[in-house]
Amino acid sequence: MSTAVIIGAGLAGLCSARALQKRGWQVTVVDSNPAAALGTSFANAGMLTPSMADPWNNPELLPYLLKNLGQESSSFLLRAGGLFSSAAWSLRFLQHSNRADYRHACEANFRLAKYSLECLQQWQQELGLEFEQRQLGTMKIFRDADQQQKSLALAEQLSSHGLDYSALDAAAAVAKEPALAAIEQELVGAIWYPQDSSGNAHLFCRSLAERITNDGGRFCYGENFRRWRWQGRKLSGFSSNSNDYDADAIVLAAGCNSPKLLQSLGLELMVRPIKGYSLTLDCTGVSSLPQQPIIDEALHGAITPFDNSLRVAGTAEIAGYNLSKTPARLQNLRQLVRQMLPAQAETLLTNEQSEWAGLRPMSADGIPYIGPVDRGGDYDRLYLNSGHGHLGWTHCAGSAELLAANMENKSGNISIDAYAAKRVLRRA
Ligand SMILES: Cc1cc2nc3c(=O)[nH]c(=O)nc-3n(C[C@H](O)[C@H](O)[C@H](O)COP(=O)(O)OP(=O)(O)OC[C@H]3O[C@@H](n4cnc5c(N)ncnc54)[C@H](O)[C@@H]3O)c2cc1C
User: Fold this and answer.
1) Residue 19: in which H helix or E strand, if any?
2) Overall average pLDDT of the 11-19 stretch
């Protein structure tokens, strides 16, 4: 039986473990936290959205960042500390915002997202995971005709790759999602994406970890990666603070920390954190809530309904690895609730709520890294599943299936080329 040790028990690591276990591998998952999904996979917006395949470094990003420099109310904020701590990445992130790279990343992300939702559906049939899943689509609402036109142009581009969408006027949007009735006059229209779905990523991870354990997988929590281990010139495993791990394959799925772990190998993974925030609001006693996720394009945020709560999430901040919660950024999310659900906002915001900040592992070219780092070379055993940015929940099952197939030298249902980990740079 082949063995794999996976570094990271977030969405990427757990799904990698599951996809390998399904193929008969003996899997061990190692994480520095005391339980699964306590990193970025803890309280994300919960949306499974092939419709949002566009990378965030779009051709309009640079003018936007410059115009909004230092403004706490801006949806995408560049902080000086973040810029200096990841200058090379920031430069590449902006370089990749040209039209050709943007288009390439949109299409690569969409292919993977669509495939990933098919895989997730398959897993759901096999495992019956409990994560408050809803398959009702998502709705993007617009307060500005220009923004709607831009989103329609992207939807049109992706429709040739299989995206379904319907353009709605304000009345049709309210008919589909009555919770929007109070803001109908403010809307110029909406787009509904029927293939999108949603679910609580943390519950999914917990449920998946339980299944992996029941099927013989091993979890080692509270173990921090320390150093790589070698047999001669060949990388054979790694040591944590308390154990040594050697295996036929090592999968690096440590989210924003993946680049740090590769540094001692002289490898530069162009992935850095983009901070985001969420609020989870208790819905007890609140009626007329949305049934599906609603994305407000003008306010750059989303509201996702779960069984007994609403998740409000959004904003992007290049601020290095700093996880502190800036009150003004959380205030932006409260404002989003007031502007999207004015009738229910005050009750929702006085109910109990939990605040959270997480670091999206964002690649400079907007595409995740999946596959072997150095096939046939000294790091032959090392594989990556990292850098999924704002799409880590959407991409998780498909990335893992693609990786596992590749690890067995098989081709997956879609080509792995666009995501190849050979994009990792080698320092001179
Ligand atoms: C506000 C917000 C909203 C989002 N909304 C969505 C959404 O709606 N849809 C979507 O698709 N995506 C969304 N995302 C993105 C998604 O949540 C991430 O892409 C995803 O969680 C990344 O998963 P991961 O497994 O790569 O990283 P993580 O979840 O961070 O997992 C990495 C794990 O590695 C462990 N680790 C790190 N370093 C070490 C070490 N040295 N030793 C041992 N263990 C280590 C960590 O403890 C952690 O558990 C959102 C993100 C944010 C912040």
Assistant:
1) helix 11-22
2) 98
